[in-house]
């Protein structure tokens, strides 16, 4: 059985250092971030938001009752690609 991928595990494995880390394979939908610095992870990398203000002002995010990223987090400036 394969191990479940989580934001917490990738945060530790890739040394990101986020207080709140969320994972979605396709990078398009997440729960809301609450503690900062925070990071969103997908299957190929991540994006970090140092502050809540930076997160809320990101034009690539649609923040409602959930977090939607129309073209995935890879479309956000500052996205880091991780090659394994």
Strand order of the largest sheet: 1-3-4-7
Low-confidence stretches: none
The proportion of residues in beta strands is: 25-35%
Please give the number of β-strands: 7
Number of helices: 2
Shape: globular
Radius of gyration of CA atoms, rounded to a whole number: 12 Å
For the termini, the CA-CA separation is 20 Å
Helical content, roughly?
A: 10-25%
Biggest beta-sheet profile: 4 strands, mixed
* Average pLDDT rating: 94
**H-E order:** HEEEEHEEE
SS class:
alpha+beta
Description:
- There is one protein chain.
- This protein is α+β, with helices and mostly antiparallel strands and 84 residues long.
- Helices cover 14% and strands 29% of the residues.
- The protein is built from 2 helices and 7 strands.
- The protein has helices spanning 7-13, 52-56, and strands at residues 20-23, 29-30, 38-42, 45-49, 61-63, 67-69, 80-81.
- The protein has a 4-stranded mixed beta sheet.
- Strand 3 (38-42) and strand 4 (45-49) form a beta hairpin.
- It is globular, with a radius of gyration of 12 Å.
- The mean pLDDT is 94.
Summarize the structure.
The chain is α+β, with helices and mostly antiparallel strands and 84 residues long. It is built from 2 helices and 7 strands, in the order αββββαβββ.
């Amino acid at each position: 059985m394969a191990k479940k991928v989580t934001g917490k595990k990738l945060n530790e494995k890739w040394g990101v250092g986020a207080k709140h880390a969320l994972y979605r394979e396709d990078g398009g939908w997440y729960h809301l971030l609450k503690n900062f610095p925070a990071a969103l992870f997908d299957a190929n990398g991540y994006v970090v938001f140092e502050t809540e203000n930076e997160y809320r002002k990101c034009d690539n995010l649609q923040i409602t009752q959930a977090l939607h990223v129309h073209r995935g987090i890879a479309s956000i400036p500052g996205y880091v690609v991780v090659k394994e």
